[in-house]
Amino acid sequence: MNYLDLLIIFLAKYLGWALGILAVFIFLKNRRLLLESFLSAAVARFGITDLIRYFYNRPRPFEVGDFTPLISHEYGYSFPSGHAAFFFALATAIFLYNRRWGAVFFIGAILISLGRVWAGVHWYSDILGGAIVGILTSILVNFLVRKFQRPGSSV
After folding, report:
1. Cβ count within 10 A of residue 69
2. Least confident among 23-27, 54-58, 115-119, 146-150
3. What digits encode the pLDDT tens for the residues 37-61?
4. What is d(CA 91, CA 23) in angstroms, rounded to the nearest whole number?
5. What is the mean pLDDT of the chain?
6. What is the dihedral of CA 3, 72, 49, 10, to 10 degrees?
7. Whole-angstrom Cα distance, residue 62 to residue 67?
8. What are the φ/ψ torsions at residue 98 (nearest 5 degrees)?
């Protein structure tokens, strides 16, 4: 295993944990942003992507190619990428409140997503689908939170 493989493994498997922890520490004082960003990410990943996967089971690259992926992963259900949906939703929610930190999280979401393609567990179109799901989910959650927020409440 070379350094490039180790970098890809880090991006695909561990950078997401670092981003999640960073989000908690940076936005701990802003409960609304923290709750909205993780709610958006959870709905995108565990709601919408799982619903799509229920109706569409796409094989992963390592299933149709003759190679072993750099990270272990179960078979099937490649589209859309749950990781991309989660981290693009997180980045979008943060971006809607703080553009500078949102840009940092978008870069992280892109790096995680590319790492998962390069590791052999997703197709580029899986990432695009997950990114679209994540971004649109986050925009919808933000709209609903703003629409139903009581005047003067911080959460």
Report:
1. 18
2. 146-150
3. 999 999 999 999 999 999 999 999 9
4. 10
5. 92
6. -20
7. 6
8. -150, 105
Residue 80 corresponds to which tokens in the numbers above? 């859309």
Q: What is the DSSP string of 103-114?
A: HHHHHHHHHHHH
State the Cα–Cα distance between residues 130 and 36, nearest whole angstrom: 18
Amino acid at 129: G
pLDDT(155) > 70: no
Residue 141, classified by CB atoms within 10 Å of its CB into exposed (0-12), middle (13-18) or buried (19+), is buried
What are the structural domains, with CATH classification, of the chain?
3-148 (1.20.144.10)
Put simply, whether the predicted model's pTM sits higher than 0.85 gets the answer yes
DSSP-derived secondary structure for the chain: --HHHHHHHIIIIIHHHHHHHHHHHHTTT-HHHHHHHHHHHHIIIIIIIHHHHHH--PPPHHHHSSS--SS---SS--SS-HHHHHHHHHHHHHHHH-HHHHHHHHHHHHHHHHHHHHTTS--HHHHHHHHHHHHHHHHHHHHHHHHHPPTT---
Residue 116 has pLDDT above 70, yes or no: yes
Both tokens assigned to 37: 């960003």
For residue 1, what pLDDT band results from cuts at 50, 70 and 90? confident
